[in-house]
Known about the structure:
It contains 14 helices and 24 strands. By secondary structure, the protein is α+β, with helices and mostly antiparallel strands. Strands 7, 8, 9, 10, 11, 12 and 13 form a 7-stranded antiparallel beta sheet that branches. Strands 2-1-6-5-4-3 form a 6-stranded antiparallel beta sheet. Strands 15, 16, 17, 18, 21 and 22 form a 6-stranded mixed beta sheet that branches. The termini are far apart.
Amino acid sequence: xxxxxxxxxxxxxxxxxxxxxxxxxxxxxxxxxxxxxxxxxxxxxxxxxxxxxxxxxxxxxxxxxxxxxxxxxxxxxxxxxxxxxxxxxxxxxxxxxxxxxxxxxxxxxxxxxxxxxxxxxxxxxxxxxxxxxxxxxxxxxxxxxxxxxxxxxxxxxxxxxxxxxxxxxxxxxxxxxxxxxxxxxxxxxxxxxxxxxxxxxxxxxxxxxxxxxxxxxxxxxxxxxxxxxxxxxxxxxxxxxxxxxxxxxxxxxxxxxxxxxxxxxxxxxxxxxxxxxxxxxxxxxxxxxxxxxxxxxxxxxxxxxxxxxxxxxxxxxxxxxxxxxxxxxxxxxxxxxxxxxxxxxxxxxxxxxxxxxxxxxxxxxxxxxxxxxxxxxxxxxxxxxxxxxxxxxxxxxxxxxxxxxxxxxxxxxxxxxxxxxxxxxxxxxxxxxxxxxxxxxxxxxxxxxxxxxxxxxxxxxxxxxxxxxxxxxxxxxxxxxxxxxxxxxxxxxxxxxxxxxxxxxxxxxxxxxxxxxxxxxxxxxxxxxxxxxxxxxxxxxxxxxxxxxxxxxxxxxxxxxxxxxxxxxxxxxxxx
Length: 576
């Protein structure tokens, strides 16, 4: 019954059930020594203990009721992290228990802090489901003036391996993966971390050398660079590791004799420059090949590595090898995608008196190709075609479909130069349904002509695409909303409208795809209004600068779609 205290609440005033639940939740969190917050299934903060308020520099009223991701989570530059890339939010949505290390959060005073976190499903006394998140600063396990390192317990070893797996599997960038592993092992296990990687041509590069000094990690670029080739018979530890042999220990004495190879010379230099008295060296193996070697070295610590340290090092390099395999595979695919994209996107034609510019940006978390495209080409007769489109998806399949659509469009437009744009798009729609492997697509097709009055005209049709934007030289901007028809691939046979617009002198016409204006957190009208205002403010900018600034200022940071745009600017009448 409302107004009655729950059994066992002692002298607590009589409260309603919901209020009592809130009191119990706050009391439970205050009993947690760490900084703790509770969020509901939507990510809204419903409770935060005093430790969390101090750590985040925000009072309870500044936390409760706010979206935890939008309010707190940032990248290292202080920018919002897209929700699709937020491990905390993904754990909340899947009701999973997850751990993350050294991510950035913003305090109430605007200062960025790097915190580790643990999140687990949680249900309040009132039955509200969500998650409990613990936030904490990563403590240093070793100080530079320690003479000996405390041996890791079995729990420490398991925690390190789990943290390594989490850190390495959450990136597809080789350089980022190596920096993360260096931060995990130095200074926890060593004073130095050295990574030597084999290239696809079996050449060796010392890609990263990290030193722990005066409480911070320092990258020693002076010790990085190309290395001599791997000798086939050398018994030296690094040479053996780069051939895939078992891990081993090394010290300055290992390389004191006459060097048997160029790598041995570089190792002599490494021990001399770093002052390492003990090192453990292990191969980094991928699924099929040896990818490189990791050297952990101790200089400031007096205790040397022992054979008992090698199994942990091998566990670390095994995880590293899998991560690097994935990263390299992704980078090879990305390189193929970039090459494919360069060939798919056309060279812009030269039109008398007209300026033209185009841009393409891939989706942040996909291949470097996608379904967004633009095109401009000459037609038979004194006219040019201008087009932009979007095939569903942003991967290689979408790019292949995009190429089919674009090539068919060129063929139809060239073979029927006098046909209305709507007729060309109708023919294309029929072909898409029967020939191309494209689920659905949107597009705008226009025909540019120069009239006897020296003014350019755009005769166009729109198949379900965001409307063109026309910006006059005096800063007026408006959308061309006429000629809007249904998208391609629906199977619905409806007449498609056409429209004609006169382009004033020194006006800028912009065709773009929805990745420039769509956001998961705002309506499409908000994005269109934002584009219109920014484009109007840039009316006097050179066309290349106009396009670059629009991408920088307008593209939503939380949009994970690719973007294509093509812009043209008409000449002044005096130039005609």
